[in-house]
Every structure is written in C-alpha cells, then in structure tokens.
Specification:
The chain is an alpha+beta fold. The protein has 1 helix and 4 strands, in the order αββββ. It has a single domain (15-102), classed as Hotdog Thioesterase (Thiol Ester Dehydrase, Chain A), CATH 3.10.129. Strands 1-4-3-2 form a 4-stranded antiparallel sheet, covered by helices on one side.
C-alpha cells in the first residue's frame, strides 16, 4: 500500500496529495483548453486556500477530481477543485498556479 505508513494501522491518502491531484488536473485542463504543448511548461503553486478535508480517502477508493477555472490570464490561473469518492465530497480547495516556459523559469 502506498499510504500504509501515513498513520500506523490506519492508511489514508494524505491531504497534500489530494490537493496535488487537483493541481495536476488543473494543469492538464489548461494545457488541453489552450492547446499548448505541456512538454516545455512548468506549473508552480502560488497559493492554496479554503482547503477542506471532509472524509478520509482509503485504500481501494477511487478519487474523482473535478476542477473549475475561476480566472485565467497567462501565466496565472485560479481554480476551485473538488475531490469525491462514490459521489461524496471528500475534499475541496481553491488554488492559484503559474504556468511558465521551462527555458524562462529562472529569468
């Protein structure tokens, strides 16, 4: 089990990984909707707010991620995200990310 040691004898998916899954989904949404090539892009978290973890996600659960773009203007994007298991809300968050070209990352 991937999360066997998160809490001894009580494996749960860490909340930070649930929020990361929302962010990864949001990054895919931006790349798909803008028809950009993700291979030369980096995505950085800028903020995470209103994160709530309502129920634990356990081994064998299927996590469904729903992301909505709230605002977006290159390179900064704001999203709201929801994570559900069997139609039940388990987590939600609002987050902002910056999408930059790999070669302009440190300039």
């Amino acid at each position: 089990m991937v999360f066997q040691g998160h809490f001894p004898d009580n494996p749960v998916m860490p909340g930070v990984l649930i929020v990361e899954a929302m962010a990864q989904t949001a990054g895919a949404l931006v790349m798909y909707s803008t028809k950009k090539d993700a291979a030369d892009k980096l995505v950085y978290f800028m903020s995470i707010s209103e994160a709530k973890f309502r129920k634990p996600v356990l081994p064998g659960d299927t996590l469904h991620i729903h992301v909505k773009k709230e605002k977006g203007r290159d390179p900064i994007w704001k999203f709201s995200g929801r994570a559900e298991v069997d139609g039940t809300l388990v987590s939600e968050s609002v987050f902002t990310a910056m999408i930059v070209d790999k070669d302009n990352d440190r300039k």
